[in-house]
Amino acid sequence: MTIELPRGKLEILPQALYSIVHAALMESYGLVGTKAQGLMEQIFSKEEEKGIKITEEERSVVVDLYIVLEYGVRIPVAVRNIQENVYHHLKKDAGCEDVEVNVHVVGLQF
């Protein structure tokens, strides 16, 4: 993602966005972990990139999260908390103007 500044350009690498999203996830209520979608992702992706898909366009970012929640938490409350954490971290830390966070609950852990 590239941001135009008055005195030049700022390029934020995808690895930085993954790190920001992963940090926001680890602060979230009810989250057990993320789950890789597909065999190739399970084998070849870094731990902090598993279960996170980021699509970038200009200054907008679409984040798809594939998560496992703790059994007994209220799913809508936990998902809303995760969406807000990721949204605010990307706006504050990366300067993203348009952020969409989609959460896919793929499992519960007892």
Model description:
It is a single chain. The protein has helices at residues 14-26, 39-44, 75-94; strands at 2-5, 8-11, 31-34, 52-57, 60-70, 98-109. The model has no long low-confidence stretch (mean pLDDT 85). The protein has one domain: Alpha-Beta Plaits, CATH 3.30.70.1350. A hairpin with a 2-residue loop joins β1 (2-5) and β2 (8-11). It has 110 residues and is α+β, with helices and mostly antiparallel strands. The chain is built from three helices and six strands; from the N terminus they run ββαβαββαβ. Strands 3, 4, 5 and 6 form a four-stranded mixed β-sheet that branches. A two-stranded antiparallel ribbon has the order 1-2.
Question: Mind sketching the topology for me?
Answer:
Blueprint: E1 2-5, E2 8-11, H1 14-26, E3 31-34, H2 39-44, E4 52-57, E5 60-70, H3 75-94, E6 98-109
Parallel strand pairs: 5-6
Antiparallel strand pairs: 1-2, 3-5, 4-5
Features of the shown structure:
35% helix, Alpha-Beta Plaits, alpha+beta, 110 residues, 6 strands
The total count of helices amounts to 3
- In CATH terms, what is the fold-level topology? Alpha-Beta Plaits
Task: Report the end-to-end length measured between terminal Cα atoms.
Answer: 38 Å
Characterize the overall form: elongated
- Radius of gyration based on Cα positions: 14 Å
DSSP strand tally: 6
Query: How much of the polypeptide forms β-strand, as a percent range?
Result: 35-45%
Percent helix: 25-40%
CATH architecture title? 2-Layer Sandwich
